[in-house]
Design brief:
This protein has 422 residues and is mostly helical. The protein has 23 helices and no strands.
Length: 422
């Protein structure tokens, strides 16, 4: 049923006089926020009441902690919508409340959600008096909502505090987004943090490594030339993740800087479960420099794959050949050379990618691979030839058939005969 305030939907269980905002009892309406299904309706009523509802909202919001944060978050949203200096003061007071402590993790998480909501509303209201409480909450509680609100104020004192929060994997994505909002203003703090290694018993813990790697990636996204020296230094960093993140970032900030060193690190990152795609894109930024080093790395990786046979080596090898295949005509020529490699695995990968290119040079190489001494390469070549529209008869694939299957059956038969003799 439409209420007296435009399309405002009035809760049906309120008495008829409550259709008019000046007759609503704020205390009673605030209690309606406890209804998790219809709380938004009561928020609209409180907004309609306006300033007379501020005291009731303040008492509710500053009440005892609850395992369910939604009702008090709705109160915070109502205060933000009503606005004014008094609403800002109440929201700022929420940030200063004592935490329930580690012995009450459910209440602690609930209170954090309420604080984040209050911080968000303070950011929307834009009252300059809110800056100091927000800074204190970010410094003392690492409250990410406070950092996000301070972005709206363009408060640069929040930047080093946000950089510290990059150590927390749970909030890292939100922190990074806030730092990117500051843009070039964040470069100095990011460079300093990238160079700062925390040690615990002489070893850098993972939280420090992840923080520094995140700083490197952010410098790459901001693309400020002031980040180049620090990123170049980190190509020799003791932490692998930092080295690779710095190389990826350096390709964005200064594509012409330290190319041999950067390409070496990026090639090492191919096949990495987290950074492989980014390493590949960074290598593609300078294909003329990366291609010869990639081709050389393929041979080294093929030797490792054949001797150790680890999944990691195979994954890196596939990633390397995949990047070469994306390097246009020079990459196609490199694949043509790899199709004659000593390693059957390399030949097979090269033929597989050539079969997808449709390049004129690919047809003759794929046709030759139909007579490769390795059956796997022959099967790969046959699939590529068919993809090119060439009708390949089974007899044209030299020795393919079921020779491997027949040999296996003969070995099995001999084994069974030996058991029978015993």
């Amino acid at each position: 049923m439409p209420g007296a305030h435009g399309d405002l939907q009035v809760p049906p269980n309120l008495p008829l006089p409550s259709l008019f905002a000046d007759t609503l009892d704020p205390e009673r309406v605030v209690q309606g926020l406890e209804d998790l299904q219809r709380g938004q309706e009561f928020v609209l009523l409180l907004i309609a009441i306006g300033e007379p509802a501020l005291d009731a909202l303040a008492r509710f919001l500053l009440g005892p902690p609850s395992p369910h944060p939604q009702p008090r978050m709705l109160a915070g949203e109502a205060l933000g919508a009503i606005g004014g200096a008094k609403a800002s003061r109440v929201l700022a007071e929420v940030l200063d409340r004592a935490s329930p402590g580690p012995h009450s993790p459910v209440l602690a998480l609930s209170e954090e959600a309420v604080r984040n909501c209050a911080a968000r509303q303070l950011g929307h209201l834009g009252d300059p008096a809110s800056v100091e409480p927000l800074l204190d909450a970010l410094r003392r509680l690492h409250l990410i909502g406070a950092g996000e609100a301070l972005v709206r104020f363009r408060e640069t004192r929040a930047i080093p505090l946000l950089v510290e929060c990059l150590s927390d994997a749970f909030s890292r994505e939100r922190v990074a987004a806030a730092l990117l909002e500051f843009g070039h203003e964040a470069v100095g703090a990011l460079v300093a943090a990238l160079r700062t290694i925390e040690l615990n018993g002489g070893v850098e813990p993972s939280r420090s490594v992840e923080r520094r790697a995140a700083c490197a990636r952010l410098l790459g996204e901001i693309k400020d030339p002031r980040g180049e020296p620090a990123l170049g230094e980190r190509l020799e960093d003791p932490a692998l993740e930092v080295r690779r993140s710095a190389a990826i970032a350096l390709a964005l900030v200064a594509p012409e800087a330290l190319i041999p060193e950067r390409v070496r690190v990026l090639i090492g990152g191919l096949g990495d479960s987290a950074l492989s795609d980014e390493c590949a894109e960074a290598l593609l930024a300078t294909p003329e420099d990366a291609l010869p080093r990639l081709a050389a790395a393929v041979s080294a990786e093929a030797a490792a794959a054949s001797s150790h046979g680890t999944r990691g080596a195979l994954r890196r090898l596939r990633s390397m050949v995949r990047v070469i295949a994306r390097m246009g005509e020079p990459g196609t020529r490199a694949l043509a050379q790899l199709a004659h490699h000593d390693s059957a695995l390399v030949r097979g990968l090269a033929v597989a990618h050539l079969g997808r290119t449709g390049a004129p040079i690919a047809r003759s190489i794929v046709a030759a691979a139909l007579r490769d001494p390795d059956a796997r390469v022959r099967r790969t070549a046959a699939a590529g030839a068919r993809r090119m529209g060439v009708d390949v008869r089974p007899s044209a694939v030299a020795g393919s058939g079921h020779r491997g299957w027949r040999a296996w059956r003969m070995r099995l038969a001999r084994c069974l005969e030996g058991r029978g003799d015993g």
